[in-house]
């Protein structure tokens, strides 16, 4: 383990603590699965507004599996890309009912075999529901890991592999939670607040 990486993690722990936080509201594994699918190209805050009514209307996996496509599209429209998301949600929940007895599986291959579920979504489920150490690579993690020199890759799967080698397992889930907060408040995509940044000296892009 590189001393530099441990220093970065130690600073993140001091700033944000080590508590596991999930920003998507849910009370069951399948709700988190659907919320994560909806969160693609959409803010968690908007997803939470949509799922508040959505999970009341469709209160079981079976109801989603039997949903009318056009109706579901309208229900999730504010999250964007709703044609594709609605189609995937119906196909995914049908597979949950038919292949997994209505339960969300924990195996990465089983999860990624579901419609609309890539490694990022699968790792959110594995980390938050099953507490399996998982590295979730979203836009914040990809951008900031490059800035911190923890990866040189752009491809999320390669970034995930790099971080699995670079980070101790007890920080795999935590790193994502901390970096989302950091990425929203300080290390933003367009105009990062470099002067306020407590990781300045580790940043490959910081100019005095």
UniProtKB/TrEMBL annotation:
CDD domains: ENDO3c (cd00056). InterPro entries: DNA_glycosylase, Endonuclease3_FeS-loop_motif, Endouclease-III_FeS-bd_BS, HhH-GPD_domain, HhH_base_excis_C, HhH_motif, Nth. GO terms for molecular function: 4 iron, 4 sulfur cluster binding; class I DNA-(apurinic or apyrimidinic site) endonuclease activity; DNA binding; DNA N-glycosylase activity; metal ion binding. GO terms for biological process: base-excision repair, AP site formation. It catalyses: 2'-deoxyribonucleotide-(2'-deoxyribose 5'-phosphate)-2'-deoxyribonucleotide-DNA = a 3'-end 2'-deoxyribonucleotide-(2,3-dehydro-2,3-deoxyribose 5'-phosphate)-DNA + a 5'-end 5'-phospho-2'-deoxyribonucleoside-DNA + H(+). Keywords: 4Fe-4S, DNA damage, DNA repair, DNA-binding, Endonuclease, Glycosidase, Hydrolase, Iron, Iron-sulfur, Lyase, Metal-binding, Nuclease. Its EC number is 4.2.99.18. Residues 38-185 form the HhH-GPD domain. Binds 1 [4Fe-4S] cluster. It is an enzyme of class 4 (lyase). Pfam families: EndIII_4Fe-2S, HHH, HhH-GPD. Its cofactor is [4Fe-4S] cluster. [4Fe-4S] cluster binds at residues 187, 194, 197, 203. DNA repair enzyme that has both DNA N-glycosylase activity and AP-lyase activity. The DNA N-glycosylase activity releases various damaged pyrimidines from DNA by cleaving the N-glycosidic bond, leaving an AP (apurinic/apyrimidinic) site. The AP-lyase activity cleaves the phosphodiester bond 3' to the AP site by a beta-elimination, leaving a 3'-terminal unsaturated sugar and a product with a terminal 5'-phosphate. HAMAP family: Nth. Belongs to the Nth/MutY family. This is Endonuclease III. The gene is nth.
